[in-house]
Amino acid sequence: MTTILVPYHQDERLAEDEIPVPADVTVEPRFPDGDVWPRITAVCDATAVAVAPVVADGAVPLVLSGDCLVAGGVIAGVQRAGLDPAVVWFDAHGDVHTLQTSTSGYLGGLALRLVTGAHPGKYADAFGLRPVSPERAVLADARDLDPAEAAYLAASATRRLPVAEIGAATVPPGPLVLHVDVDVVDAGELPGLRFPVPGGPSTDAVVAACARLTATGRVAAMHVACPWWPAADGARQAARARLLSRLVSRS
């Protein structure tokens, strides 16, 4: 397994050890001039460059980053290696806003919608991502949806499933990119998240679902997004390290 660290939240460089896991490769993009979109897509392109040769060699890269937008770079890297993956998206949120529906303006809230084809001129086209068709995307949990997201998902081919139902028989056929936003875990178990949501699955349940998918042999890459604030103390940092260690061991 090759561990790839992308120490960015959007285009903001994270502090050292904010994602407490040893990495084989650390992605450091060359940022162009311009607004936030070219900078985000530079992060995604650099991620794809790091992922593609690992997949081409038959290994499964584990990518860790500070937000969900990097998932597009992971998928693009898998595509550059010659695969056409579906995506299984673990998240407490829907991430299916568009620029028109977002009330907060937080771009991470668009991440899955971007991966499945929204605003291609700002995102996918900029780093060569071929959008995943909505019917080849599964959204696991997503217990916190804004009204516009709920309306979109009610009419979309993207399926929603509880974490407990994620397994070989319920995800699309063929290669998979597994995306795990750590906020899918119940907020009571993981303090310090940027967007905590109570009432979610346990760490055990999320790890078990990842293990079920990994056991299929179809996971081409795994992305773990860590949208949390800097750890306030050693205990919080240790809890994060334990969570990431468990996810790494199931990749």
Write a concise keyword list for the protein shown above.
251 residues, Arginase, Chain A, manganese, Ureohydrolase_dom_sf
Structural overview:
- Belongs to the arginase family.
- Keywords: Hydrolase, Manganese, Metal-binding.
- It holds the Pfam family Arginase.
- GO terms for molecular function: arginase activity; manganese ion binding.
- This protein has helices spanning 36-56, 71-80, 111-115, 124-127, 147-155, 203-214, 234-249, and strands at 2-6, 8-9, 12-13, 25-26, 61-65, 86-93, 137-144, 159-161, 176-181, 219-225.
- The chain is of the alpha/beta class and 251 residues long.
- It has a single domain (2-249), classed as Ureohydrolase domain (Arginase, Chain A, 3-Layer(aba) Sandwich), CATH 3.40.800.10.
- The strands form two sheets. An eight-stranded parallel sheet has the order 4-1-5-10-9-6-7-8, sandwiched between helices. A two-stranded antiparallel ribbon has the order 2-3.
- The model has no long low-confidence stretch (mean pLDDT 96).
Q: How many beta-strand runs?
A: 10
* Largest sheet strand order: 4-1-5-10-9-6-7-8
Helix content: 25-40%
> Helical element count?
7
CATH class: Alpha Beta
Order of helices and strands: EEEEHEHEHHEHEEHEH
Looking at the structure, what is the overall shape? globular
> Structural class of the secondary structure composition?
alpha/beta
- The fraction of residues in strands falls at 15-25%
Using the coordinates shown, work out and report the CATH topology: Arginase, Chain A
Sheet of most strands: 8 strands, parallel
User: Which spans of ≥5 residues are poorly predicted at pLDDT below 50?
Assistant: none
Going by CATH, the architecture would be: 3-Layer(aba) Sandwich
**Mean of residue pLDDT values:** 96
Q: What Rg is obtained from the alpha carbons, in whole angstroms?
A: 16 Å
Distance between the termini: 8 Å
The CATH superfamily is identified as Ureohydrolase domain
Total count of domains:
1
Protein name: Arginase
GO molecular function, one term: arginase activity
Family: Belongs to the arginase family.
Keywords: Hydrolase, Manganese, Metal-binding
